[in-house]
Amino acid sequence: MERVNQTSSVSEFILLGLSSRPEDQMPLFILFLTMYLITIIGNLLIILAIRSDPQLKTPMYFFLSFLSFTNICFTTTIVPRMLVNFVSGKTISYAGCLTQMYFIYALGNTDSCLLAVMAFDRYVAICDPFHYVTVMSHHCCVLLVALSCSLPHLHSLLHTLLLNQLNFCDSNVIHHFLCDLSPLMKLSCSSTFVNEIVIMIEGSVFVVTPFLFIAFSYTQILITVFNIPSAAGKRKAFSTCGSHLTVVTLFYGSIFYVYLQPVSTYTVRDHMATIVYTVLSSMLNPFIYSLRNKDLKQGLRKLMGRRKPQAAPS
Q1: Closest residue by Cα to residue 90 from 99, 98, 81
Q2: In the record, what terms sit under GO molecular function (predicted)?
Q3: Statement: the pTM of the whole predicted model exceeds 0.85
Q4: Nearest CA to 250 among 227, 273, 223?
Q5: What burial letters (b/e) apply to 199-217, b meaning 16+ CB within 10 Å?
Q6: CA distance 187 to 156
Q7: Is the pLDDT of residue 115 over 60?
Q8: Which of 142, 179, 208, 256 might form a disulfide with 101, Cβ 3.0–4.6 angstroms?
Q9: Cα 178 to Cα 82: distance, rounded to the nearest angstrom
Q10: Three-state secondary structure of the chain
């Protein structure tokens, strides 16, 4: 960040946000504040329920608790800055912008890796149940989470350092509500050739690889499930995967729409898709996982003290 005075005459950026109309700012503030509070409370309840219920001490819920924690951090990187922009100035410092971008990519890709790890967990549970306990040992689970959290930071650091090499000479207006790589590169007055090559090769591999791993896992799961003779067995197998598939579709569908396109084609129309994977998916995850999971619903009821009192002996 010390390169600001050397490579750029821009010391701050202006985030235009979702709307420039003054009458829209307060409704947007209330909307996103509500979504943020729901995200924090919902994901925090998931974490507390998993930590407090012995029946939820399994690899699947271990990974889910880290996914919920990442969702909290991911949303916190974005929404508070949006709320400030709605009610006050829309400026953000050069260092603050690059810092936000770093954590957006680090935490967003951590989400992606954790979803791949959860798909692997379901693959082992359904396709190789007799070795599940051995394969998904506590040591293996901790290692998978550690890799899912550390590798994305290296990926994010690479793109942040490359962006820091660019010159920003003229406009400092970002047509977005957050500091994203593509809008920032469009503002640069120096060549972004290296950045675009790295995005197309390393970036695409880093985003697509977890998705391909998930697709492979669920292909194998489907093959296994269709070979289960009983309808009850098929329903039980599908019920353990339905929530995860819903989250994967929501998350990756919006990411591919935004990022698998050239930087020059990035427009304001991509804002809604960005909101889906940055804010909406984190808010909906607790509802998706809890509504379709009896064990987790029971854990939440225990946490909230809603268990029905037992009848007194006669």
Answers
A1: 81
A2: G protein-coupled receptor activity; olfactory receptor activity
A3: yes
A4: 273
A5: beeebeebbbebbebbeeb
A6: 20
A7: yes
A8: 179
A9: 8
A10: CCCHHHHCCCCEEEECCCCCCHHHHHHHHHHHHHHHHHHHHHHHHHHHHHHHCHHHCCHHHHHHHHHHHHHHHHHHHHHHHHHHHHHCCCEEEHHHHHHHHHHHHHHHHHHHHHHHHHHHHHHHHHHCHHHHHHHCCHHHHHHHHHHHHHHHHHHHHHHHHHHCCCCCCCCCEECCCCCCHHHHHHHCCCCCHHHHHHHHHHHHHHHHHHHHHHHHHHHHHHHHHHCCCCHHHHHHHHHHHHHHHHHHHHHHHHHHHHHCCCHHHCCHHHHHHHHHHHHHHHHHHHHHHHHCCHHHHHHHHHHCCCCCCCCCCC
User: How would residue 2 be classed by pLDDT, with cut points 50, 70 and 90?
Assistant: very low
pLDDT at 265 over 80: no
Q: What are the residues whose beta carbons fall under 8 Å from the beta carbon of 133, sequence distance 6 or more?
A: none
Question: What would the pLDDT profile of 92-108 be if each residue is shown by its tens digit?
Answer: 999 999 999 999 999 99
Please, which pLDDT band fits residue 259 given cuts at 50, 70 and 90?
A: confident
User: To the nearest whole percent, how much of the chain has pLDDT over 70?
Assistant: 89
Amino acid at 87: V
